[in-house]
Predict the structure.
Amino acid sequence: MQREDTLLQISTMMALLDGVFESETSYASILEGHDFGIGTFDHLDGEMIGFDGSFYQLRSDGSARPLDPETTTPFCSLTRFTPEQTLSVNQEMTKQDFEQWLSEQLGTINSFYAVRIEGQFSEVKTRTVARQEKPFRPITEAVATQSARTFEQTEGTLAGYYTPRFGHGIAVAGYHLHFIDKERSGGGHVFDYTVNRVTVTFEEKPRLDLRLPTTTAYREADLESHDMEKEIKIAEG
Ligand SMILES: [Zn+2]
């Protein structure tokens, strides 16, 4: 098994559900060997997207800036992305139709995949969570302070992962995608989109390197009493 097959997962969605928003894991300590990923920042200070070795922080004020490696992350998914397949779509497709089609192309829906969709979109709806202060509220309440934005007739990149249903709680089952526009001026966590003319690349990641936090906040978190399905739906859309 090659290291390139590995998806590095820092903490879990379950931990975010319970408000474990602080981390001792710096991006500097985990970026080496990786050129692709999505995630968040300490205190949920925005959304992370990275591809081709360039990583960005998308913040709730609408800004985008290169990621500062000294920042820490309470949740992220990193990998080295070497596309196995390149496909083109040259027609409008809604998120639902597109993702159903894409799942038929994957080969199996029982593995993890890194996914990149690049080109022209009729619409991309995003959100970016605002930085949270202590005492932390559950993420289902934290997202009330998110700022939503709709990009219309935009060019840019969606990057993220496909997670099989059994991975829900570690990550988000189905497609968890983040967006940044071509100008690298804005983006966020993706709620909805319609593709227009895009190139789709993906790579199967059959190996998961899951690193759970060892902080007191994580060790004392209540991960047992959440309605996982419902709360992830509220938090991640
Ligand atoms: Zn996200």
About this structure: The radius of gyration is 16 Å.
